[in-house]
Automatic annotation (TrEMBL):
Protein name (Swiss-Prot/TrEMBL): Cell division protein FtsL
GO cellular component: cell division site; plasma membrane
Keyword line: Cell cycle, Cell division, Cell inner membrane, Cell membrane, Membrane, Transmembrane, Transmembrane helix
Coiled coil: none
Compartmental location: Cell inner membrane; Cell membrane
Subunit and partners: Part of a complex composed of FtsB, FtsL and FtsQ.
Organism expressing this protein natively: Methylococcus capsulatus (strain ATCC 33009 / NCIMB 11132 / Bath)
Amino acid sequence: MTRIFLLAVVAVCSALAVVYAKYRTRMLFAEVQRLELALDQYEVELGQLQLEQNTWAEHGRIEHLARSRLGMILPARESIIYIKP
């Protein structure tokens, strides 16, 4: 009689372990899905920021800002000194 009771307890514990493992698997899968969605959003944001950085660093824009805000001009060809490394 005690063996049957012991086997029943083991079977119930095993069933509970299976249920818990299944629940935990679903929770972890949901977490992975959430993190992958966040990763996709960060990758989109990174692409937008890289595009913005390239726009801000364009040669024509930098030259325009140097002329308008800083009053800089391109020196005459004769006044440029080239230094060899």
